Amino acid sequence: MTPLLSIRGLSVQIGRGTPVDGIDLDIAPGETLGIVGESGSGKSLSLRAILRLLPPQAKVTGTAIWNGVDLLTLPEPDMRRVRGGQIAMVFQEPMTALNPVLPIGLQITESLGVHLNLRGAAAKTRATELLDLVGIPDASRRLSNYPHEFSGGMRQRAMIAAALASGPKLLLADEPTTALDVTIQDQILKLLLRLKEELAMSVVIVTHDLGVVAGTCDRVAVLYAGKVMETGPVRTLFTRPSHAYTLGLLRSLPDAAHARQRLEGIAGSPPDPGALPPGCRFAPRCGFALDACRIGDRVLAPSAPDQLSACIRAETVMAA
Amino acid sequence: MSATIAARRRFVLPPWSLLGGAAILLVLLACAVVPEYIAPYSPTNFDFRSLLQPPTLAHPFGTDNFGRDILSRTIWASSVDLQIAIFATLFPAIFGTLVGSVLGYVGGWPDAIFRRIVDVLITIPFLVLVIVIVAVLGPGLGNMYIAVSAVNWIIYARLMRGEVLAQASRDYAAAGRVMGYGPIRIIFRHLLPNAVAPVLVYWMTDMALEILLGSSLGYLGLGAQPPTAEWGVLIADGKNFMTTAWWMSIFPGIAIVLAGTGFSLLGDGLASMLRRGR
Amino acid sequence: MIRLAAALLLSTSLAFPALAQTRGGTLVFGRAIESQFLDPVHTSQNADIWLSLNLYDTLLLASADGKGVEPGLASAYKVSDDGKTITFTMRAGLKFSDGSPIELSDVKWSLDRARTKASGGDFAFLLGSIESVDTAGADQVILHMAHPDPVILQALATFNSGIMPEKLVMAAPGATLDDKSKAFADHPVGSGPFMLTSWKRNTEMVMSKNPYYWKDGKDGKKLPYLDAIRFVIIPDDATRILKLRAGELDVAEFVPYSRVAELKADPKLDMELYPAAQTNYFAFNARPTLKDGTKNPLSDVRVRQALNYATDKDALIQVVTYGTGTAARSYMPMSTPLSYGPQPLYPYDIAKAKALLKDAGYANGMDITCMVLAGSQDDAAKLATLQQLWSQVGVRLKIEQLENATRLSRYNAGDFQMRTSLWTNDINDPNEITSIFAYYATRQNNRSGWDDKRIDELFDQSQAELDPAKRAAEYKEIQERYAEAAPIIFAFEVPYPVALSKKVHDFVQIPLGNNIFVNTYLDK
Amino acid sequence: MYVLAILGRRLGQIVATVVLVALLIFGLMRLLPGDPALMLLGDRATDASIAQMHHDLGLDRSVAVQFWEFLVHTVTLQLGDSITMRVPVISLVRDGLPITLLLTGMAAFLALLIAVPLAFVSALRPGSWMDAAIRTVAQISLSMPVFYIGLVLLIVLAAGLHWFPVGGIGNGFFQDLYYLFLPALTLALSLSAVLLRNLRQSLLEVLNAEYVNFATAKGLPRRMILTRHVLRNAWVSTVTLLGLNIGSLVGGAVITETVFAIPGLGRLTIDSIFARDYPVVQGLTMVLAIMVSVVFLLVDTVQVLLDPRMSK
User: Fold this and answer.
1) What pTM value is reported for the model?
2) pLDDT at D105 over 60
3) Do C485 and C307 meet the contact criterion of CB atoms below 8 Å apart?
4) How is C178-194 classified by DSSP, letter by letter?
């Protein structure tokens, strides 16, 4: 099956550092892909690099093939049609992602005008439907409200409505639940899954919350210091990780795959993107590391069916 | 992620602006402290053999209508102007900061009174108020400091009050209260150090502003009194000669711009350092 | 090339000056200060005095040389032999600027008002010798004098004797004469060659031609030549000159001396230095003790003389006036009638100064404090020069910078040691300046506290002295005694620096400062 | 009627402020050494003429009586008569206020006109040579005394190139606009430098804000993002700053009006302080205080319009 979006060698360079360093990922139609990693692992950057949302200081290289064209070199006007129209994105903090001085309704309809040429009453009707769809009661009245008049969960719903307004084929969700209460998190995740079915989209969820991945994703990619450590179906990867880092992540959780909490259990801290260690970037913190781990480049290699790992000690890890 | 980029940028910039600002100000400070070793001529002695000379090797900045060397006057003026920058702002900055931090924390009726005072003082044009006070006390720099101090502390107090209000609502202040610290300790050990950054930055801008105010008062005859050399007064002296002896006003003008640039670079640098520190 | 052509054009126009006066046009005059009040009797500021004669004509006019008088609204006058009656014959058909006739009653009323202490303001003393004013027949105005007054004719040519319309003043709103005068002075109607047509305070004042003015021009038609004068207020010297050079002004007054040379070199301008009855001096407090109780060395005449010798007038003239001034020869400006001064007073002489100081017991020098006007570049230059000069005789001169209002208060209270000063005559006679400078009763001799009974006596005599020779002798003695006593530093006289566009002709600022526009005309 | 209540309270505050301003200025003016009579009489003053003038001006009455008269004047908004010009202060206000309003208004407008586009250019390419050039020019105009900027503009643009008249005011509104352009520009330059600094900073913050990323991610055209999402937010702090600077704008007008020979209230205020013309100083500071208070009120209103969060 042809992937919906195919990313090859995606790198982001900022100053002397390379926080994203050659990432390869494929997203299949209808699939939900999770990207996990500690903060600073480059997961958010990668996501934003795809939609070219990074400031000019950030140099992005590689390819991201969408419908046969490379998003990273697409002319700006064409790129604008892709953004929102074909690939949408929701952000972590709805409070900052929604413009505080504009009414919610306007922030939904402006995208309708640009992509679907819907304006005036028609746009308003559609916006009401969208707010309905994301489960905001009394939608038509709420259009004129400002973000500060919404609760946290409602804001996130409103942002999702604004993002999905023009019927995209792919939704990039950047830590969509991190800023929310646990009870609300569930509602939002359920909403995303429902919308995914109803709108027949693919979804990429970036998160540091393994629980979110376990509950929603089909496939998962684990990022560390700007590189993909391991990818594979959620079930197999969580039960039999083939990378020492993944194993470390899972072990750091009291009840892996279920409890939602921050990844803090691995001793040491991620390397500075400006001063990366040679060899495997996880090696300095890794309990499995050998001398061989500290030299040479790592490539993803199959470690199990559908599962790729960059760990030369994959077999030992799987056995652990 | 944007945080990462911002952090990188901060990491590069502060040394530049801070060092640049400090370098400029150090040069001015040298001129201010030992002008007699730097200036080639006396700043006040007339020389009727060289009136209104354009810049030459002997007089790099030219001479004025009394034959005084502009370079020497500009150098000597730096001590007066740095004095203005410091003395006109020192009291307002310190007093205003103290008052503002106390008011921001205490609130209540002292705060209400303060807000009334602010209302009154900011509705009278600053220059008008300063002129009236200077006229009451008599012209001259000393009285200008008093006049500016009487009015300007308000700005610092306002700034500080706002910052402290914001800081006081944060967790550590509450934690301090729970631990039974007195208000004075909370204000001065916890709130003030955290809230002082914008005040410091404004202080730097204010120094440049006061030099300008000094020159405005000089223009109206209320600032530094001749034959004292002060940049603003030097510019005002040169105003009648702008078409015939441009050097009289241009060089002191450049000095003011330099000093202003120095202060604002220093302010920018301090700001980013403090922001990084937080 | 273009500049050369312009220069050629200019030189031809210089070679063949326009012969005839052209009529019409509006003269734009840049003023440094605004008039305040246009009632000639209540006028005390130079800005008001200097324009007053254009609005209010007087019975007599000062002659061009400033020493005598010539007929004005009165076509002839006759002084009786005992000097106690003066009869004026008024011109026929005189009218105010609104077209109403100037009645004899208007003349009587105006002079009565101007000479009475209660209604006459600060200059009533000029007319103090008049006992009563009478009219007779159709055109006679008769002054009965309390005593003969040698100055009365000059006084009648002075601004406060301007003739005003009684009916219109009395018809102006207001309960008292003062209130009426206020209301009237806002929209005055007068007898001068011009009339006020609009006045936006702090902006501009427009005077237009009074169509009923009596005097004929050289072309046989009624004066003035100009249609109007627009006075524009431009307080900043630099701006005023820029505006003149940009052609937006025809005349700019009070050109700083520092720019006289530059403007003289401008081929499009006439830089005029009109002789002025104006003198620069430093006033001393000559009382034995100062307000704070300390001993005042300036009470010793030797010290005052020494300081005069220690002052290099030429240096002052160079520094302050860029060479445009002349050294003082008397306390009064030399254009004052009866002024006496064979040579500049107290030529620069350090040795003499030192000797006098030693004699007075100040061989080791002393401290003197001088009040100056804050922000005045002239004062700053004067004091910087004095500091350098006097340091050579051991005098340490301290400068006290004061804002004008404070300075005046301190001065009037006698709370000063020395100050910078400038005097301008308002009348073509030595009596005004003498009464202020040398006659104790008026105001303690210019607040100096110095007193000379003999001068007081001479002055009293001169006030009623009709014999010109005797009067001249009295004033000569007064001036000699004053010079000897040196209650001031005799410094220098300065001219009025006025820059005019070349197209302006026959404008004059007389030594008293009055701007005379009646003969002024503009090239088309 | 919530709005009306707020407005009412604000008006009350303004009245209280203006009365306090009047009291403060009355007190300060009585502390001033100097005597208006001497200013009027000058060097010709004699003891008799001074006493007469004191009586004429009502200055021989006790301070308490003068204060009472002043209070009555203040409450009835009768500002009294000028001592030096002998005309009602209110007529001076009537002549001068429109000019000062126009001058400061134009200056504020020009300052925005200069600051906003330049701040955009600067903030969109931070660190570029354009950014550096703009910030340098801003620093220079911020460091130059107002009278110097004014004279330079006069010499170059008016006297040199003849694009503008050298000072003064025109006849009628549209000519005034032309005459006041240079002085307004003079005032605007330093203000625009202040605004530019601030606006650039807020633009940098806003441009990095998540809602701008979100707007971009929605596929909105760049221009729409800048005008609708970026500018609107950056406005809030700029308008606040502009409001806070109105007082200093009026202060700057004092100097500008002198340099450009403009008969506004600023110059008149200073001249009257120097002349000890108490009624004029008192009247004008009150009028200026009212003017500044109204501007503050406007600023608050605009802030609420720009940022709905402020209405809380």
Assistant:
1) 0.81
2) yes
3) no
4) HHHHHHHHHS---SSSE
Contact residues, chain A, for D210 at CB < 8 Å: 91-93, 96-97
Selecting from B6, B123, B127 the residue whose C-beta is nearest the C-beta of D293 gives B123
Sequence-separated (6 or more) residues with CB below 8 Å from residue A284: A268, A271, A277
Q: Does B3 touch chain A (CB under 8 A)?
A: no
Say how far apart CA C380 and CA C377 lie, in whole Å.
5
**With b meaning 16 or more CB within 10 Å and e meaning fewer, what string describes C83-120?**
bbebbbbbeeebebbeeeebbbebbbbbbbbbbeeebb
Q: What is the pLDDT of residues C64-91, one digit of tens each?
A: 777 788 999 999 999 998 889 999 999 9
Kindly indicate whether the ipTM for this predicted assembly is greater than 0.85, answering yes or no: no
Give per-residue pLDDT as tens, D220-250: 888 888 888 888 887 777 787 787 777 778 8
Per-residue model confidence (pLDDT) at position D278: 86
Query: Which pLDDT value is given to residue D230?
Result: 85
Asked if A99 lies within 8 A of D211 by C-beta distance, the reply is: yes
- Residue C353, classed as helix, strand or coil, is helix
Contact D209, D231 (CB under 8 A): no
Give the whole-angstrom CA distance, residue C58 versus residue C160. 9
Q: How far is CA D150 from the centre of its chain?
A: 16
The superfamily CATH assigns to domain B30-40+69-277 is MetI-like (1.10.3720.10)
Rounded Cα distance, A314 and A301, in Å: 10
Q: Is the CB of D139 inside 8 Å of chain B's CB atoms? A: yes
CB < 8 Å from D in window 389-418 of C? 403-406, 408-410, 412
Low-confidence ranges of chain B (pLDDT < 70): 1-15, 166-182, 186-194, 226, 272, 274-278
- Quick check: A50 pLDDT over 50? yes
Assess whether chains A and C touch, using the rule of 3 or more C-beta pairs within 8 angstroms: no
Residue pair A248/A268 in contact (Cβ under 8 Å)? The answer is no
Poorest-confidence range of C17-21, C43-47, C137-141, C466-470?
Answer: C17-21
Q: Span C259-281, mean pLDDT?
A: 93
Contact C44 D95 (CB under 8 A): no
Could you name the CATH architecture of D89-311? Answer: Orthogonal Bundle (1.10)
Cα angle: C433, vertex C435, C441; to 5 degrees: 150
| AA identity, residue A265 | G
D184 neighbors D110 (Cβ within 8 angstroms): yes
Select from D203, D206, D218, D302 the residue whose CB has the most chain A CBs within 10 Å, as the one to mutate to test that interface: D218
Q: What is the DSSP string of C200-246?
A: ETTTEEEEEE-TT---B-TTSSBSP--SEEEEEE---HHHHHHHHHT
Whether the Cβ atoms of residue C381 and residue B68 lie closer than 8 Å to each other: no
3-state secondary structure of A207: strand
Domain assignments of chain B as residue spans, ordered by start: 30-40+69-277
pLDDT at C439: 92
User: What pLDDT was estimated at residue A213?
Assistant: 87
Structure tokens at D146: 């107002």
Secondary structure (DSSP) of C449-489: ----HHHHHHHHHHTT---HHHHHHHHHHHHHHHHHH-SEE
Helix (H, G, I), strand (E, B) or coil at A112: helix
B253 contact C CB<8A: no
- Give the torsion through C-alpha atoms of B148, B150, B153, B155, to 10 deg: -70
Kindly state the tokens that stand for B112. Answer: 């209400």
Q: Indicate the length of chain C as a whole number.
A: 524
Reported confidence tier of residue C378, pLDDT bands at 50, 70, 90: confident
Distance CA(C462)–CA(C465), nearest Å, equals 5
pLDDT for res C59: 94
